[in-house]
């Protein structure tokens, strides 16, 4: 829509003033059926109009890991939220590349996490919230002392007509009413234009955004707009048409609705593999903020990966000393260790093999100069030196390098190329290629060879198993310790409780209670298959005062997990777990012990994962079983020497 510009003396497209007509109300929604035929793949149409890139002076990232990201997986603990928030602060730096992060406010855990993060006093990322567009939810924001909140303001007719059962006029009036309520409370509202890539841009979105900007001018309080590509329909192709064209969506908000760049954000989803490209396109055409989650966490196919946008920022704006890219790797390692989530090995920047070269010709180039096949100095920027996959050309030094890198062994614990185990692995690798192999050795294959020929490096893995067993055993013990019948020290009350308990956990071989003198006061409570053995070899009032588990528990007054030992009753390898029983005055009055079959420790660890509402992956389970196998044979060999 051209207007005469007196200064320029020509008809000129004046940003922000060309679409003054109001909302296009209608009795029936515009579902763009020519573009979105539900029973066919959506279409991409073009208007052939090209517009130049116009990036904002200040571009930044906002985070939705604790909102949209968390919705895609098992809920985070408060401690996990705190730690990730720390990483976001470190990565984004003092200038606030990662400008804000949004939180739920509904549960007690949500509120505790917000309180913990606010208490850190970080300027960035700013703690904001996300709510439904209701007055009740606004009160939560005010009570928590949060100055900015996102609110759901759906803009497509799919939502207005089909979900809300309403019409454009009523929905917009309702949304504006909640925005006014937020402004009256001194809260900065951030309106999430949900499903904008299927919305009527000039029939609803632009008029709605213009009304928001009027309220901003009247109240002198900023109002933000987030463009939510809810189903990932956005496209970045030159000449693409609305409502799918990311460049035109951004410019419509800036030029025709008058939303300043610093108040505009893009939130994308990866349903069509376009999430990263669309986000960068939004930046290039004037959107100040891009919203994402770590590692692309998010509903369905996920959100824009925050760590990828950090790299894109540096690509567009150059080096920035305040940004800590090394912490990206630390964040990924934390997620791999702490969450029931395995980052794909080929995932850019943080996957285990993202900078591992497998092709022989590439490996040859890397030996000459790593710049030939490495994207950048991954060691300096991400703390990840380039790696070469193992083939028959790798030599013993290459295999030793792989072992030390893969198992994170550093001096003095690293393995030298002269280690006999390295020679044995190398011989097996060479034989593979002599027999006709043409592909590089996989990590799984090399792990198995390392387990076979260098078993000592897995002892730390056994310590991990003991640690996880301790965590699991502590849950079991606490459950019993809080039982009034157990604390009574009355065997007649204790025995039924313990009997039912070991029925639920069949890997517990034997359970017992002793008094403070180490005398067993309960009957032999064991699994049915062991009752005969215990009947003949364990006295009813057995003196256990010389047993290590009893002595350690009495001396230290806390949970004790033994090493692997042989049960004198069943001759099976067991781990003993014991804990003090205390009375109402918190005085120790006895000791509860559980004997867990060592062969079943893996089952116990797997139960921990299930207890947390997650499952151990098949690969993790296989690794634990290998570790157990190695430890069993180590103990057996030691016992025969």
Please tell me about this protein's structure.
The protein is 43% helix and 14% strand. With 641 residues, the protein is an alpha/beta fold. It has an eight-stranded parallel beta barrel, surrounded by seven helices. Helix 17 crosses helix 22. The longest helix is centred in the last third of the chain and has 23 residues. About 2% of the residues have low confidence.
Summarize the entry for a quick read.
By secondary structure, the protein is α/β, with parallel strands linked by helices. The chain has helices at 65-69, 78-92, 108-119, 135-144, 157-163, 168-184, 201-219, 246-256, 275-284, 306-317, 326-338, 360-368, 378-382, 395-406, 420-434, 443-453, 459-481, 484-487, 491-504, 531-537, 548-556, 601-611, 618-640; strands at residues 3-5, 10-12, 60-63, 98-103, 126-131, 148-154, 188-194, 224-229, 264-268, 289-292, 356-357, 387-388, 508-514, 525-526, 560-566, 573-582, 588-597.
């Amino acid at each position: 829509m051209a207007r005469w510009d007196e200064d320029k003396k020509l008809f000129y497209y004046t940003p922000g003033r060309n679409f003054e007509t109001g909302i296009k109300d209608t009795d029936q929604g515009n579902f763009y059926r020519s573009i979105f035929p539900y029973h066919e793949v959506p279409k991409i149409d073009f208007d052939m109009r090209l517009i130049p890139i116009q990036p904002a002076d200040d571009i930044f990232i906002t985070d939705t890991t604790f909102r949209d990201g968390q919705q895609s997986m098992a809920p985070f603990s408060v401690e996990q939220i705190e730690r990730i928030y720390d990483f976001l602060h470190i990565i984004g730096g003092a200038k606030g590349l990662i400008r804000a992060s949004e939180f739920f406010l509904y549960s007690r855990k949500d509120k505790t996490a917000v309180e913990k993060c606010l208490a850190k006093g970080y300027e960035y990322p700013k703690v904001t919230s996300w709510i439904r567009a209701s007055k009740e939810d606004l009160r939560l924001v005010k009570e928590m002392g949060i100055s900015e909140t996102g609110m759901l303001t759906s803009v497509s007719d799919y939502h207005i007509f089909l979900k809300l059962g309403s019409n454009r006029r009523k929905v917009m009036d309702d949304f504006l009413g909640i925005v006014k309520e937020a402004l009256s409370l001194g809260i900065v509202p951030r309106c999430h234009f949900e499903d904008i890539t299927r919305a009527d841009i000039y029939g609803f979105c632009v008029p709605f955004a213009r009304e928001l900007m009027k309220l901003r001018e009247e109240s002198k309080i900023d109002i933000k707009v987030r463009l939510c590509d809810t189903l990932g329909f956005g496209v970045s192709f030159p000449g693409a048409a609305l409502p799918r064209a990311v460049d035109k969506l951004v410019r419509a908000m800036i030029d025709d609705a008058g939303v300043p760049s610093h108040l505009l954000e893009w939130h994308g989803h990866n349903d069509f593999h376009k999430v990263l490209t669309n986000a960068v396109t939004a930046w290039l055409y004037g959107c100040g903020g891009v919203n994402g989650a770590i590692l692309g966490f998010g509903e369905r196919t996920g959100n824009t990966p925050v760590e990828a946008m950090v790299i894109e920022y540096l690509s567009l704006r150059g080096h920035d000393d305040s940004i800590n890219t090394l912490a990206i790797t630390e964040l990924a390692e934390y997620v791999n260790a702490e969450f029931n989530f395995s980052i794909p090995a080929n995932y850019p920047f943080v996957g285990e093999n993202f900078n591992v070269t497998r092709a022989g010709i590439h490996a040859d180039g890397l030996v000459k100069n790593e710049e030939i096949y490495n994207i950048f100095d991954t060691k300096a920027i991400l703390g990840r030196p380039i790696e070469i996959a193992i083939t028959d050309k790798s030599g013993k030094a290459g295999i030793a390098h792989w072992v030390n890198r893969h198992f994170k062994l550093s001096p003095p614990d690293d393995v030298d190329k002269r280690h006999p185990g390295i020679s044995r692995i190398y011989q097996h690798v060479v034989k593979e290629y002599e027999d006709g192999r043409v592909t590089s050795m996989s990590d799984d294959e090399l792990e198995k060879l390392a387990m076979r020929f260098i078993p000592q490096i897995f002892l730390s893995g056994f310590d991990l198993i003991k640690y996880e067993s301790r965590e699991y055993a502590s849950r079991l013990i606490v459950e019993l310790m809080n039982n009034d019948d157990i604390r009574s020290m009355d065997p007649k009350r204790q025995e039924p409780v313990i009997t039912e308990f070991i029925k639920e956990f069949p890997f517990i071989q034997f359970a017992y209670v002793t008094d403070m003198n180490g005398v067993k006061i309960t009957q032999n409570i064991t699994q049915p298959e062991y009752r005969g053995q215990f009947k003949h070899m364990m006295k009813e009032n057995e003196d256990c005062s010389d047993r290590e588990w009893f002595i350690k528990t009495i001396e230290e007054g806390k949970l004790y997990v033994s090493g692997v030992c042989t049960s004198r009753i069943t001759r099976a390898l067991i781990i003993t777990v014991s804990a003090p029983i205390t009375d109402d005055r918190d005085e120790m009055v006895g000791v509860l012990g559980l004997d867990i079959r060592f062969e079943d420790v893996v089952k116990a660890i797997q139960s921990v994962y299930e207890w947390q509402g997650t499952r151990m992956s098949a690969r993790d389970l296989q690794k634990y079983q290998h570790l157990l196998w190695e430890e069993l044979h180590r103990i057996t060999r030691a016992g025969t020497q």
